[in-house]
Amino acid sequence: MFHSKVTFYLVLILAGLIVFSSSENNQAANPKVDPTQVILRSIQPAEGPQLEIRIGHLVCKTKELNFQRKEGPEYNVQPVGGKVQVKSDKQRIVSQQMEYSLPWLTGER
Q1: Which of 20, 50, 69, 82 has CA 20 to 30 A from 6's CA?
Q2: What start and end residues bound the annotated signal peptide (predicted)?
Q3: Per-residue DSSP letters for the chain?
Q4: Is this structure's pTM higher than 0.70?
């Protein structure tokens, strides 16, 4: 009787370890990505500095980005010195990485 209980608990512990370790690996391989978050970063490929735009799992690369929210000012986004520069008529912001909400960028708030 004692032998079967020990075997049962060992199998139960082993099954728990397998389940938890595989779920941890799945979380690491597929991190949660917010599809409404826009991330702008400066990257340095062989072609020269570029702007990396991430929206969810979509990744685009370009040298420059221009956007305008409804009737507001036009913004110009460029990689400058390894950082992202967002420039309009009234302001200039420089940062390692910029994050925006997609509804804010499209004016859908």
Answers
A1: 20
A2: 1-28
A3: -HHHHHHHHHHHHHHHHHHHHHHHHHHHHS----TTEEEEEEE--TT--EEEEEETTEEEEES-EEEE-TTS-EEEEEEETTEEEEE-SS-EEEESEEEEEHHHHHT--
A4: no
Query: What does R_g of the chain's alpha carbons equal in angstroms?
Result: 24
Q: Measured at the alpha carbon of residue 98, what is the angle toward residues 49 and 63, in degrees to the nearest 5?
A: 25
Could you state, in order of their start, the residue ranges of all structural domains in the chain?
A: 1-31, 37-106
State which amino acid sits at residue 77: V
% pLDDT > 90, the chain: 39
